[in-house]
Design a protein that fits this description.
With 539 residues, the protein is an alpha+beta fold. Helix content is 39%, strand content 17%. The chain has helices at 2-24, 28-38, 48-55, 72-78, 80-87, 98-109, 114-131, 155-174, 190-200, 223-233, 239-251, 269-273, 282-289, 295-304, 320-323, 327-334, 484-506, 520-529, and strands at residues 59-64, 139-140, 149-150, 152-153, 182-186, 221-222, 253-255, 258-260, 316-319, 341-349, 360-368, 383-389, 393-395, 406-408, 424-430, 433-439, 444-447, 470-481. The longest helix has 23 residues, at 2-24.
């Protein structure tokens, strides 16, 4: 009996430790409901086929915006569920017990370091690739989540890893678990893959990022450099897997006919692809969201996964081709918005004497944590700069200076200024030497070398930027509000109040004039009729 009691006490301690760790994330109650829904009443364990069906991604035709989907990618998604079971949930004879179920959740979703989260994600990816018949070059020294990873990745491996993360993020948002297969929209993430290649592989000057086919690249990305690139550029990438596991377990509900869960009001795939006509495509919005955390990341994720309640263009505050070019048109649409803003602009640079074939089109973005203000000096508390097309990079604040944003309109009084301040929008740098400066007509943008800027991290905003300032012609400007519904409501109230004041100023109160003799019209007519007439001045 002593041995029996000791065994029972040991199991009880393990269970309490697992439950305490799950409770620290606030998910213990959810796990209890999910386990009771999935478990077999007789064995008090979850059958393996039921749990595998939960994590199976049932998509039939990945639809990509631009790139050709590799033939092995659908097979990768088909084997993802079984790989998660093999690595995360340890099964016994009757299935997955309650303790192992909670432990499996803790492996994915408990608080852990970024290196551990990346280790789990790459381990799941490597096992899934092997089951799909495309083994990777990744090697893990042990089964420990903190073990060292060696080997390398190919560009197509990086592409499928990112697409796998997109697929599980899409599944987490749509919250669907059903037997029917649906189409999966795949965004164009060529710029993110090129970012990993440029940062990790020794490509030198032989890589033409302006016209690059990923399928034909025969380069190796050392896994150590790749891990550093993820932490530096897309630190929220491992969260895709933990959010996927949490969403699946939260929405699982047992039914007699199978497994389903409550579906969310996500728009059709065609609506998601409609964002490809914007500068902020679904793929680029997802990439930017991976650089952020918190509410801002959640707001920009609505562009990747728009719902019927949110609307397609709800967060779009300004678009030059729609609202008109120029600082005044821009200001009339964003004034009063007190929340984070994402400003994007596409431009074309190149020698004007050359043919159009030598022109380079690129897209750059700037994220501000507050709304724009009409000031003749720099302001702001934080922000990021983004190189988006053709290669994705993010430049965070350095902490040395706080010249985040500059936005200045023409002074209304038209007073004489011996040294007038620049009129336009700028980011980083200093007055008259901004790292990014857009003129008041929104026709030209000037990009300067990062040596002139101590606010944002150094780096080129487009390939082959050089040291000298570059002037480029702007083709499109967009501003997206990321402050949520409350910031938009505040702006709407501000616009209504300003419109009310404008209407009041346009009205003339005739009661202020007592009679014709006191009116300004009478005075003007007398002066025109006989300007030399002597008039008595009342003292």
């Amino acid at each position: 009996m002593g041995a029996s009691t000791s065994t029972e006490q040991k199991v009880s301690i393990e269970q309490r430790e697992a439950e305490a760790l799950a409770a620290s994330t606030g998910a213990l109650s959810m796990l209890q409901k999910s386990f009771s829904s999935l478990a077999d009443p007789d064995s008090n364990a979850i059958p393996l086929n039921s749990l595998q069906q939960c994590f199976s991604l049932t998509y039939k035709n990945p639809v990509c915006e631009a790139l050709t989907v590799p033939d092995s990618f659908p097979m990768l998604l088909d084997h993802l569920g079984s790989s998660i079971l093999d690595l995360i949930f340890i099964s016994e004879k009757g299935g997955v017990s309650w303790v192992e179920f909670v432990r499996g959740y803790n492996k994915c979703c408990a608080r852990m370091s970024a290196s551990m989260s990346l280790n789990i994600l790459l381990r799941v990816f490597a096992v899934t690739l092997q089951k799909a018949g495309s083994p990777s070059n990744l090697e893990f020294e042990s089964d420990d989540v903190e073990c060292k990873i060696t080997g390398s990745l190919k560009p197509v491996d990086v592409l499928m890893l990112l697409w796998m993360c997109w697929a599980i993020s899409w599944n987490s948002r749509t919250s669907k678990i059903s037997k029917e297969k649906t189409d999966l929209p795949q965004p164009d993430i060529n710029q993110i893959v090129l970012s990993a290649i440029v940062s990790c592989a020794d490509v030198g000057s032989g890589l033409n990022v302006w016209d690059c086919q990923l399928s034909g690249l025969e380069v190796e990305l050392p896994v150590g450099k790749f891990l550093s690139w993820v932490v530096r550029t897309v630190p929220s990438l491992p969260d895709c897997f933990s959010q996927f596991v949490y969403a699946i377990l939260k929405n699982c509900v047992s039914h007699k006919d199978g497994l389903e869960c409550s579906t969310s009001s996500v728009v059709e795939n065609s609506s998601t692809m409609a964002y490809s006509s914007h500068l902020l495509s679904s793929g680029m919005a997802w990439a930017i969201s991976l650089t952020l955390r918190g509410t801002i990341s959640e707001e920009i994720s609505k562009v990747c996964f728009p719902s019927k309640t949110d609307g397609i263009d709800k967060n779009l505050l300004y678009r030059s081709s729609l609202h008109g070019r120029g600082l005044n048109r821009f200001w009339s649409n964003i004034e009063g918005y007190q929340g984070p803003l994402l400003m994007l602009f596409s431009a074309t640079s190149g020698d004007a004497s050359d043919s159009r074939a030598n022109e380079r089109k690129w897209t750059v973005g700037a994220l501000t944590n507050q709304g724009f203000e009409n000031k003749d000096l720099f302001y702001g508390s934080s922000g990021n700069l983004y190189a988006i097309i053709p290669v994705f990079h993010v430049y965070l604040p350095t902490g040395k200076e706080k010249n985040f944003v500059y936005s200045h309109l023409h002074p209304t009084g038209r007073a004489y200024e011996p040294k007038p301040k620049p009129v336009g929008i700028g980011f980083g740098g200093s007055m008259g030497n901004e790292r990014i400066f857009i003129d008041e007509d929104f026709s030209k943008v000037t990009i300067r070398h990062h040596a002139a800027d101590k606010t944002y991290q150094p780096g080129s905003l487009f390939p082959d930027q050089g040291f000298l300032p570059v002037e480029a012609l702007i083709s499109e400007v967009e501003v997206w509000g990321l402050g949520g519904r409350s910031a938009k409501d505040v702006q709407d109230s501000y616009k209504k109040r300003e419109q009310l004041f404008t209407d009041q100023r346009r009205k003339v109160d005739l009661k202020t004039f007592a009679n014709w003799e006191d009116s300004p019209e009478k005075m003007m007519m007398d002066m025109v009729s006989d300007p030399n007439a002597v008039r008595r001045e009342d003292r």
